[in-house]
Design goal:
Blueprint (H helix, E strand, L loop, with lengths): L1 E8 L1 H5 L3 H9 L4 E8 L3 H7 L9 H9 L8 E9 L1 H9 L12 H5 L1 E2 L5 E2 L2 E3 L3 H11 L27
Antiparallel strand pairs: 1-3, 1-6, 2-3, 4-5
The structure holds 2'-deoxyadenosine-5'-diphosphate and magnesium ion.
């Protein structure tokens, strides 16, 4: 069944110039990239994305990490992968959360590390299940940024909405 999943190449992945390697690994899945962008990660976005972990002792460091404060790279590459069994396929390729325990041939096993202060720098995020995927994709992308119609949308008219255009 076709489904979609969010993928983030995290700031450590960008700092280590792993984008190409990670995209190559993900291409093994034969899934389609339905959306892609480089995104800044605001405090609000980071906290919302990881809200299920807000009571964990590592939460503050996790927010710093995903915002790029630990790698001087204040951005992530955000993508939506779409196709048959997308969530499980990408998840398997990424490996388990703890990069030291992840299969060494998985993306996290190959490229991740745990720092001495205990941060799991695991290079990539991908949604855990269908509910996570929907919540996360809607958080990171607007409908017009995704080339496949994946969730219901509605039309709204914004009065006096300001937006930046080329000068
Ligand atoms: P996943 O990213 O595999 O879906 P998660 O949603 O439980 O795992 O956690 C999100 C991130 O939080 C994870 O990629 C790394 C960090 N994290 C999770 N457990 C941790 C721990 N025990 N110590 C440090 N960081 C942790
Ligand atoms: Mg998760």
């Amino acid at each position: 069944m076709n489904e979609q999943t969010l993928v983030l190449i995290k700031p450590d992945g960008l700092k280590k110039s792993l984008t190409g390697n990670i995209l190559t690994r993900l291409s093994e899945t034969k899934l389609e990239i339905a959306a892609a962008k480089i995104a800044r990660v605001s405090e609000e976005l980071a906290v919302e994305h990881y809200k299920h972990l807000k009571d964990k002792p590592f939460f503050k460091d996790l927010i710093k990490y995903i915002r790029g404060d630990l790698h001087d790279r204040h951005k992530v590459m955000a993508m939506v992968y779409w196709g048959d069994g997308a969530i499980k396929k990408v998840r398997e390729l990424c490996g388990t959360t703890n990069p030291e325990e992840a299969d060494p041939v998985s993306i996290r096993g190959a490229y991740g590390r745990i720092t001495t202060s205990g941060v799991y720098e695991n290079a990539i995020h991908t949604s855990g299940d269908k509910e996570d995927a929907e919540r996360e994709i809607k958080l990171w992308f607007d409908p017009d940024e995704i080339i496949v119609d994946i969730y219901p949308t509605k039309q709204i008219t914004e009065k006096e909405a300001k937006r930046r255009v080329w000068a």
